[in-house]
Design brief:
The complex is a heterodimer of chains A (654) and B (178). Chain A is an alpha+beta fold and 654 residues long. Helix content of chain A is 40%, strand content 13%. Chain A contains 25 helices and 21 strands. Classes of the chains: A alpha+beta (654), B alpha+beta (178).
Chain lengths: 654, 178
């Protein structure tokens, strides 16, 4: 009997049509839990580093998390893993929605897609019955449209469908995988689906997920439920509205966008507009949003309402979430939110990441203004900002003309275009577009998070520690008074001492040692969430979340029957985290890649930055090139990894 | 005939507040698992959120009486601009659809208000107050026909499906096997 997990992977060879239901080793639960942890193990074991993103051998893995399908609120994430065409490292974008629980109920923990199909297909998983079906009639259809068409054609209104739009079909590097109100967007999972010619994966499951000690599990959930209710009624004081609650940022609920519009950069992450939120703009933005949002919607088994059904004027309906509400208007430098709500529908059906895509389009606009791209590249393009952005989006998703170059993202496009275009691809880390933030003084915590985390997108790295110091001692005292999520009381002192500026402010405080401790802790929380399938919005991403290090082990123990304490859980996620690092090292990643964009902060401190990296690497048990040491790997029962890294000449002298 | 007081339980559904999370389905299936809370399977739930996301339809429906035959209800209701088909709102486990049937046996499911609990688990687990439990006292006639239990309902539906003789023969054969 397997608890919490299904105990089976579904392996699909798209080239031959061979489908196998493979029982997994129960030991994997003890060594890597599930979700991202077991997926990393699978990629390490089965995908050699010579594999290129569009090779047959690049596995595309859709994974549930360990607690998906159980009553644990907000455990609904699907982790998609593959070698990214953009970063050429292991990417793991995640989506909420309803898909992963359905897969668990169908009896599988993961779907592993191998090789490429000769023609367009979709996969239909209905409990033990699995079919590869023709998708030629779905080619060219939108990502949302496809989901409904498949449900209709299967006569299965309860099927959950993850699909790509035409961006994925055309292997655009920012192509997303869309599903219900959610999407796995970053780093081109949609492109890898397109390369394998698989348009969608549809799932319906009606089997049981078992809990080892169900009554005990429900008892733990009562405490968590009480805390969710408490936090929904008691937002954190002294921080921006968007950071005060739990759940992913409630972008469709909050209408006050003063902070985003005046602190994030417009255009190609260039222009800061400190006085944008005027009365006139506020009126248009607020009324547009209130009229467009038809209903707040959640993901599976989540009480929060982070997404929305959007019904904006004559635009076909779609679902949206998070920062995508603003990114196109800000990227195009269009003052009206109306534009964003229009183009976002198109972008969702095309299936593109709404973080990186607007920056790519804005990058093209800048190159045109700088004379690097020419009139010929823009032949037929309207001259108004709205029309130009829409025209560019249409070219990119179809890889037409200049769109074909831009579809690889700013880093690769700049390399192809040359003529100084590299200067304009200024906002990437590890070849991936970052949030459009340009700040003043180096923040040591953010420096470490940006530089070293494998996720390469800050929103899924940061979280439990406040983004900035509170201005007054009273505020700090009030904040730490009720902070049970911390590992222990001693941590509170750091926050109490931390000031907005001066000796006890950034960049020198928190000290490199303290920063290492805090960043490592935040990262660990994300790794736990990604293994159990919990939305970071209820755990690692927000301040004072309902799930934390003191209750995760209890829930996991009651669900699985495995007796796990905090130390045991930490060891498991550290094992997976170090394996993940080793995997990216094996793909060529080193210290040289670990740096935020040059212009992320105006005031940089090169010496301090090197010290931060040195200290953090040492804290992690990595050598000064950012590679886990033999001692660290052996401590985590990863001797086989140390052996291979040595054999390949990546790890030297232990 | 004497009148007696009886507690009447009901759940008020404010569908406008529903965010479509389906926690109610999870809690229901966990509560009705044997042993209690040992497994989760929304397909066994006695409440289902009927969903058409883009049409803005999120409608929690509770399993009601078993209907042995299909009805002629194929009407369409338009409420506040949203189109609901009658079948989608119906509480019955019936031959025309899979809803409210045990996925293994096909036997009908029916909401029992989580007998023994303070209030139904779906209500407790709905943190958005879509489901509101109400209990009131009502005067009723003393002698009321005993309501059939779960086993009666199950056997009745098997009888309707296969005929009484076949069910009895099968039970006799099974009991001989011990």
């Amino acid at each position: 009997m397997r608890y919490a997990e299904a105990g089976y992977y579904l392996e699909v060879d798209l080239a031959t049509g061979n489908i196998e239901r493979v029982e997994t080793d129960p030991k994997l639960l003890e060594t890597h839990l599930g979700g991202l942890g077991t997926s990393v193990k699978l990629h390490w074991d089965r995908v050699p580093p010579e594999t290129k993103p569009f090779d047959d051998g690049n596995l595309l893995v859709f994974s549930t998390g360990l607690l998906n399908g159980t009553p644990a609120f907000s455990c609904n994430r699907t982790v998609v893993t593959f070698i990214s065409p953009q970063s050429e490292l292991l990417a793991y974008p995640m989506m909420g929605g309803f898909w992963s629980a359905e897969l668990k109920y169908a009896g599988y923990d993961k779907i592993i897609l191998k090789n490429k199909s000769p023609q367009w297909v979709y996969l239909w998983v209905h409990n033990d019955k699995v079919e590869i079906r023709d998708a030629s009639h779905l080619v060219g259809k939108g990502a949302l449209e496809t989901q409904d068409l498949i449900r209709e054609e299967l006569n299965e209104p309860n099927a959950q469908v993850a699909a790509i739009g035409i961006a994925g079909e055309n292997k655009v590097f920012t192509a997303s995988i869309e599903q219900s109100r959610s999407s796995a967007s970053r780093l081109g999972g949609g492109a890898v689906m397109g390369d394998k010619k698989i348009k969608a994966v549809a799932v319906r499951g009606t089997k049981d997920v078992f809990l080892a000690r169900g009554a005990e599990f429900m008892e733990h959930m009562k405490g968590i439920t009480d805390y969710i209710n408490f936090r929904n009624e008691n937002p954190v004081k002294g921080v921006m509205t968007i950071l005060s609650g739990i759940g992913s940022p409630q972008e469709f609920k909050h209408t006050d966008e003063k902070w985003h519009t005046e602190n994030f950069m417009w255009g190609n992450a260039r222009v800061r507009r400190r006085d944008f939120w005027s009365k006139e703009h506020e009126e248009e933005w607020v009324s547009t949003q209130l009229n467009a949002v038809k209903r707040f919607v959640s993901c599976y088994n989540c009480p929060q309402q982070c997404g929305a059904l959007v019904s904006h004027k004559d635009v076909p309906r779609y679902m949206a979430k998070c920062f995508g509400k603003l990114t196109y208007s800000m990227g195009a430098q269009v003052d009206q939110l109306d534009f964003n709500f229009r183009i976002l529908q198109r972008a969702t059906e095309y299936g593109v990441d709404s973080f990186s895509t607007p920056q790519i389009l804005a990058f093209a606009v800048e190159l045109k203004e700088a004379g690097i791209l020419t009139d010929k590249d823009f032949e037929g393009c309207p001259s108004d900002p709205e029309g130009r952005f829409s025209w560019l989006l249409d070219r990119v998703v179809r890889r037409e003309g200049i769109g074909d170059v831009l579809a690889d993202g700013t880093y690769w496009a700049a390399k192809k275009i040359g003529k100084g275009a590299e200067e304009f691809a200024h906002n990437t880390i590890k070849k991936h577009e970052q949030l459009p933030l340009k700040l003043s003084t180096l923040d040591p915590l953010y420096f470490l998070m940006y530089s070293t985390n494998e996720k390469i997108s800050i929103t899924q790295i940061e979280g439990n520690w406040p983004q900035a110091a509170f201005p007054t001692r009273e505020q700090r005292e009030a904040f730490v008074k009720d902070w049970p999520q911390l590992p222990d009381e001693s941590w509170k002192q750091i926050l109490l001492e931390w000031e907005p500026r001066g000796e006890k402010g950034i960049p020198y405080f928190p000290t490199p040692e303290m920063c290492s401790q805090i960043v490592d802790w935040m990262e660990m929380l994300h790794n736990i969430d990604d293994a159990i399938g919990l939305c970071a919005g209820m755990g690692s991403f927000c301040l004072k979340p309902p799930y934390h290090i003191h209750n995760y082990p209890k829930l996991i123990s009651a669900a699985t029957g495995m007796d796990l304490d905090e130390a045991g859980l930490k060891k498991i996620v550290n094992r997976s985290r170090n394996l993940h690092r080793a995997l990216n090292n094996r793909l060529g990643m080193t210290r040289a890649d670990e740096k935020p964009p040059e212009d992320h902060w105006k005031k940089r401190f090169p010496e301090l930055e090197q010290k931060l990296l040195d200290t953090y690497y040492a804290y992690k048990g990595w050598n000064m090139n950012g590679i886990p040491t033999r001692a660290r790997l052996e401590e985590l029962d990863l001797k086989y990894v140390a052996d291979e890294l040595e054999q390949r000449g990546i790890l030297k002298n232990g | 005939m004497a009148k007696i007081k009886k507690k009447v339980k009901r759940i008020k559904i404010d569908a406008d507040k529903c965010n479509g999370c389906r926690s109610c389905e999870i809690a229901c299936s966990a509560f009705h698992a044997t042993p209690k809370y040992s497994s989760i399977n929304p397909a066994r739930s006695r409440i289902r959120v009927i969903t058409h996301r883009l049409k803005d339809i999120w409608l929690p429906v509770f399993a009601g009486e078993y209907a042995p035959a299909e009805c002629s209800g194929r009407d369409v209701y338009i409420i506040d601009g949203k189109e609901y088909d009658e079948c989608g709102m119906c509480r019955a486990a019936c031959p025309s659809r899979d809803l409210f049937k045990e996925p293994d046996s096909g036997l009908p499911l029916k909401c029992d208000m989580c007998e023994g609990e303070e209030k139904p688990l779906c209500v407790t687990w709905c943190l958005n107050d879509v489901l509101v439990f109400e209990e009131r006292e009502e005067e009723v006639e003393e002698e009321e026909a005993a309501k059939p239990g779960e086993l009666d309902l199950g056997i009745e539906s098997l009888t309707n499906r296969f005929g009484l003789q076949k069910v009895m023969d099968t039970v006799a054969r099974m009991s001989r096997k011990g």
